[in-house]
# Entry
Amino acid sequence: ARSRFESAFTAVREEFRKTFHYFFPGGEADLKLEAADDPFNSPVQIIGRPEGKQLKRLAQLSDGERAMLGISLLFAFYAVRPAPFLFIDELDAPLDDANVLKFASYLAHLKNDIQVFVITHNKRTMEKADTIYGVTMEEPGVSKIISVRLKDVKRHHVAVEET
Amino acid sequence: ARSRFESAFTAVREEFRKTFHYFFPGGEADLKLEAADDPFNSPVQIIGRPEGKQLKRLAQLSDGERAMLGISLLFAFYAVRPAPFLFIDELDAPLDDANVLKFASYLAHLKNDIQVFVITHNKRTMEKADTIYGVTMEEPGVSKIISVRLKDVKRHHVAVEET
Amino acid sequence: MKLKELRLYGFKSFPNKTVLELSRGMTALVGPNGCGKSNVLDSIRWVLGEQRLSQVRCSKNDELVFSGSARLPEQGYADVSLVMENEGEFIELPSEIELRRRFYRSGESSFWINREECRLKEIEAILRGGAAGGRLYSVFDASKLAGIVGGDIHNLLESAAGVLGFRERRHE
Amino acid sequence: MKLKELRLYGFKSFPNKTVLELSRGMTALVGPNGCGKSNVLDSIRWVLGEQRLSQVRCSKNDELVFSGSARLPEQGYADVSLVMENEGEFIELPSEIELRRRFYRSGESSFWINREECRLKEIEAILRGGAAGGRLYSVFDASKLAGIVGGDIHNLLESAAGVLGFRERRHE
Ligand SMILES: Nc1ncnc2c1ncn2[C@@H]1O[C@H](COP(=O)(O)OP(=O)(O)OP(=O)(O)O)[C@@H](O)[C@H]1O
Ligand SMILES: Nc1ncnc2c1ncn2[C@@H]1O[C@H](COP(=O)(O)OP(=O)(O)OP(=O)(O)O)[C@@H](O)[C@H]1O
Ligand SMILES: [Mg+2]
Ligand SMILES: [Mg+2]
# Structure
């Protein structure tokens, strides 16, 4: 079990370095077992350093950078052990436009092997979806689900802006 | 001091009911002093019920609804005791398009009396600003501030999408 | 394995019978704040056997059941079904697996696998036993992400390790 | 009272001298993740006398000082100036007030009000004494909002009460 854990760790570390590099070009990342002699119980140190930034505490990263780091790690786990489906609830909220696009593009690639469900308010993310369901509450307090097409969403947003 | 506290409380409660109604038409809100005999030390109960939803725990509200509730309360305090400036860091992140528009419109009104600084990734919010500063890191790890016009922001986003 | 259909009745903000067909590829769930999107995710966690109320954003069990709106009265139970296509991950089970869970306000619970009543244990056994392993890291939101960044990745590493071992064993 | 200008030097991700003119009305600060927007807010809190490191997202004082980039070496101190227009709120002070704060990696701090060196206490006294009262609820981010929704509004209520009382007193 210990060597199984260690090979999983090594695989995740490998993938994490790749996904982090995808979201942070020029950056570097690593995963370290703090107690190398007891890998199974050892706390894991996560290191993520965007380009040009001094490596210190993760807490010094911005909100968006920490979100990208978490997403990179999550995708690394999926690359090593792909569960058949993935549910995402508004992980793109703190991201800037360029990062949303990277996130959505990565999902657009992942969806070929994994059934992806993503809750989002962001149009870039919606554009990569094969199916869009709108959840509405026309009757206050009562949820209803309807099929929508992307242009319905865009028209709705225009309508919202015109009010 | 006690009566001063109570009149402040009453004023804030009054304003909160109005701002909540602005963000949640058809909804109801209230502030209650749990220990009415000791107002100064009493915990405050916040009640916010969107239209058609049963009044229970605030924790049952969605992420976006809780953000709107917090924003309503924050604006209520500003209506009672306006500080000369207000700094907002990405409070619009969890909001849907219609709520971002309400939020930005409220700020557009508030800015006549109060100097407002808002950090945002959202174009609807940017559109209501009188001045836009872009913070960039062309040189990795080194921040720089430049003036931008809204159309620069829009062109940049188009450029981002075309890459 | 592929999710095929989700049915909600009386679950949180879904009083009426709601059927959601789940397609391959990527599905986006969109809509205004508070309309019920995260509730759909909660229903999936719940029907897959989630017992921790905090993971479905409740503090009491009865918060799972539709508590009424301006026009509609509260309902007596919450019922969620999830139909999955078994693409070989569960060798001893049929090609279609329907999991169903119901909770009554009175506190009773019922569970079904392919229309046969069963216990929660059996649903958990199925989900653990498949080549897909646990559902441990299928649902991600901001708080889960913060946990990961905070270093809370042991569960994830163990799942990754668990499955790797299973695959080694299968190839022996 | 109106903020007129903010100057940063060596503060967090701003190694070079940066001057930000602050206009009336609403100013939006935009840019990619990690480019330094929240750092600008931290600098304003800091120059206004914030002593709690957690409120400027630091765990040690030296995290306030530019720690270097690929090309630039770390700097020896962080220096922030904020120029405010006094529109009558501080009756005993001039029409323009410049607050300045500097922190050296060695641990020393310096403070100035209108180019005269002073102590942090004096800056705090100015900010407390004006008709604007404290700066207690001028900066709002997600965690502050969560605190408010969680019921942590006593500070805010007391500020509202404090100023109301002050206004009553002035009209006597
Ligand atoms: N048992 C219940 N009965 C009726 N309504 C409920 C129940 N539980 C939760 N709700 C309602 O569901 C709503 C929350 O839905 P949900 O969290 O799914 O929103 P959301 O679409 O994810 O919104 P956001 O975009 O803001 O995250 C709340 O307004 C809440 O009052
Ligand atoms: N002392 C320091 N020296 C150099 N860089 C620093 C220092 N302190 C923080 N930084 C850097 O500043 C960046 C964070 O900036 P900031 O939090 O202002 O970003 P932001 O623009 O608010 O981004 P987001 O949109 O993601 O919230 C981090 O990448 C961090 O490495
Ligand atoms: Mg939600
Ligand atoms: Mg920030």
Notes: The longest helix of chain C spans residues 154-170.
